[in-house]
Amino acid sequence: MTTSSLLLDAFLPYRLSFTTNLVSDAVASAYEEAFGLRIPEWRVVAVVAEHPDGVTQQAIGWTTRMDKVTVSRAAAALIDRDILIRGPNPADQRSHLLTLSTAGIALYQAIVPQALALEEQIFGSFTEAERTQLDAMLRRIDAIVLDGHMTASKA
User: Fold this and answer.
1) Which of 5, 39, 64, 138 sits 20 to 30 Å CA-CA off 50?
2) Which residues form the signal peptide (predicted)?
């Protein structure tokens, strides 16, 4: 009977997770230091900024792949800081729409140049073609996982 061996450092799902954590940690400390934001809060701000007419917490969770509790805590912290405004959702009385306050818009406008600069620091040594290829590969991985084409083999 032969068994396959797995070298964690060569296992692509692990490498993807490892690299994601490295990038997230670098970005998190930059946002925390400069703006007092944790990564979930920044993600909420970014998604809300893309929806000037408002967006639900559920939609934020789906867009960012963050769980309901994480989105709820981030939104509550941002509302407490007067960065977000929670208003009624005319399409669904059971939910609310989040929009950026004036302070939230100013914060977002201050973060964007720094976010783009961080992206450039991390990916600046890649050619445009490599960046495009990496983005395409990541989107293919997303599609495979989201479409449910993964199965565990049974021995």
Assistant:
1) 138
2) none
In this structure, which CATH number among 1.10.10.10, 1.10.340.30, 3.30.1360.60, 3.40.50.1100 belongs to the domain 11-146?
1.10.10.10
Q: What is the pLDDT of residues 108-154, one digit of tens each?
A: 999 999 999 999 999 999 999 999 999 999 999 999 998 876 665 54
Q: Which of 135, 131, 130, 85 is nearest to 105 (CA)?
A: 85
pTM, whole model, 2 decimals?
0.84
Would you list the DSSP string of 25-75? Answer: HHHHHHHHHHHS--HHHHHHHHHHHT-TT-B-HHHHHHHHT--HHHHHHHH
Sign of the dihedral defined by the CA atoms of residues 47, 49, 50, 56, in that order: positive
Token pair for residue 80? 């407490």
